[in-house]
């Protein structure tokens, strides 16, 4: 029966995490996995989340009935408003649908499954991108998955000219995936004027935008600023898909809480799309999990709780910015060869350091520092106690490998 089953290759990110756990060094540093840590290096349950959890479990009305196929309505409505903006024409004209998913990954997959059925075209992913994107679209059955240039290793910034030239050369109606903010792994986002330029070409070429938004509010500390790209495309009249995750901005990683919001031309089309998404959910997950959605719904729909959440978001974004600054200052003090400005110029959870695969393996081997082989560093893994050690490790590895 299982004669032909071979061992699947390990997931690069989860594999680094398990090597880190096995490492017995007292100075080991985990900057591999993208999960927030406090300055003590501990996971953080946001105070507002803890409060609402208690409210939910102590409520005499709590039951464990199935949610509808499209999830908790107070959660999905609030999610659509959060990403599109309360005054978005799409919201006011009720021409959207929002369907609950198994976190951000599930939202991307739900969107991919839907597009495979109703818009089976070429998919373009940024190069580089979150490692899971390629596999999700492959598993959804897309056969033509191509890349578009995004990052320029020389400037360690956006390759805007190349990106635009590539958009112009794409086949009409192709699907183009964007990270709404805090691009993973590079931490490089288009500026507002660059998004405007991108949207203009997308419109001319009739390209279809699919936004993956895993870091709203977490990138800049402002929920509106981090949603600018999506809202700009909506203002320009695009129909679009946006996958939302509450893993990072609510710290609800294991609750698998997410939403797929679709902006359509008419309320009737939105309803048709909603029913098709329900149909997909039915065979894959039947109905989504309730706990995370109940937490998020309570917070998004209560002005006082919302304020508390925003203040925690600012705290997380602020701590990460501080780590960028401290790492940069340490490297400058050490006189580490190379230019390190990108550490403070990039945004969100990750810094794309520019370290080579050889350097990443060496830093793991010699200094017990765990990062992906692409040189991506999760800034949340740094804190005031380990940043000096981390900077020193980079400094030494860079010097060891100088040609
Ligand atoms: C770009 C991007 N999309 C989606 C996700 C999905 O995360 P989750 O499924 O945990 O919500 C992540 C998480 O790292 C991500 O970086």
Annotation keywords:
403 residues, alpha/beta, Aspartate Aminotransferase, domain 1, Aspartate Aminotransferase, domain 2, 2 domains, seven-stranded mixed sheet, two-stranded parallel ribbon, 16 helices, 13 strands, 14% strand, globular, binds pyridoxal-5'-phosphate
Uncertain residue segments: none
- Highest CATH level, the class of the largest domain: Alpha Beta
Could you give me the name of the CATH homologous superfamily of the largest domain?
Type I PLP-dependent aspartate aminotransferase-like (Major domain)
Oligomer: single chain
As for the CATH topology of the largest domain, it is Aspartate Aminotransferase, domain 2
Mean pLDDT: 96
Give an overview in words:
This protein has helices at 12-22, 47-57, 73-84, 89-92, 103-118, 132-139, 160-169, 192-204, 223-226, 228-235, 267-284, 291-300, 303-334, 341-345, 357-367, 387-400, and strands spanning 29-30, 96-102, 123-127, 145-149, 151-152, 157-158, 175-179, 208-213, 240-245, 257-263, 350-352, 369-370, 376-378. The protein is α/β, with parallel strands linked by helices and 403 residues long. It folds into two domains: 12-44 and 317-397, Aspartate Aminotransferase, domain 1, CATH 3.90.1150.10; 73-301, Type I PLP-dependent aspartate aminotransferase-like (Major domain) (Aspartate Aminotransferase, domain 2), CATH 3.40.640. It has a seven-stranded mixed beta sheet with strand order 2-10-9-8-7-3-4. The chain has a two-stranded parallel sheet with strand order 1-12. Strand 7 (175-179), helix 8 and strand 8 form a beta-alpha-beta unit. Helix 5 (103-118) packs across helix 6.
